[in-house]
Amino acid sequence: GQQLNQSPQSMFIQEGEDVSMNCTSSSIFNTWLWYKQDPGEGPVLLIALYKAGELTSNGRLTAQFGITRKDSFLNISASIPSDVGIYFCAGPGSARQLTFGSGTQLTVLP
Amino acid sequence: NAGVTQTPKFQVLKTGQSMTLQCAQDMNHNSMYWYRQDPGMGLRLIYYSASEGTTDKGEVPNGYNVSRLNKREFSLRLESAAPSQTSVYFCASSDLSAIYSPLHFGNGTRLTVT
Q1: Residue in chain B nearest A1 by alpha carbon
Q2: CB-based contact (8 Å) between B90 and chain A?
Q3: Is the C or the N end of chain A the one with fewer CB within 10 Å?
């Protein structure tokens, strides 16, 4: 199946700092999705990208669909304590289903 | 609007016991999914049901069975639980209106097999 490499695995940042994380795939994608999972809950969709080069924002979050169609980036500006959680990228897998990256665990220190 | 509801929230089983995880969605979605989440491995697809009356294997189906009871409900059964099935299980649903429609997840069932 498709391989998604997500980095970094974990991040510890100070409140107010900006955050960047990325995902790369072993093949060309036509869709990138970014999810966030709060502790003890299921993942929730943050941003969906459907076009190479697309840049989409959702509040302080901005995601980009890489021009090569093999990568995607998620940036969080001016982090706050409620940004804590696991961030997952997702894209097309085998059998036309989604496949997920291994996640980036974000910790925001006061 | 409850979205996707999973029961139970927590379960402890002994090796060899069986159990069924329940999932129901109230969004009139056609497709439903079962994922497992293990530390450092993200979410892996166990089984999915593209529409009522159909089910298909995902990436890690061994040791599991599923039933799409109706459009709303999709259950996951462990016939003989093993410690390797200790995990957090998530049910999800999506609309078929677009390929790779975003998934809506429940809050998970935390299963421990001793």
Answers
A1: B59
A2: yes
A3: C
Q: What is the mean pLDDT of chain A?
A: 92
Q: Is B100 helix (H, G, I), strand (E, B) or coil?
A: coil
- Indicate yes or no: CB of B40 within 8 angstroms of CB of A92: no
pLDDT at A29 over 70: yes
pLDDT in tens, A55-76: 999 999 999 999 999 999 999 9
Cα B102–Cα A72–Cα B4 angle in degrees, nearest 5: 20
| Nearest CA-CA distance, residue A79 and chain B, Å | 23
Mean pLDDT estimate for chain B: 92
CB-based contact A96 B42, cutoff 8 Å: no
Q: Provide the CA B100 distance to its chain's centre, in angstroms.
A: 18
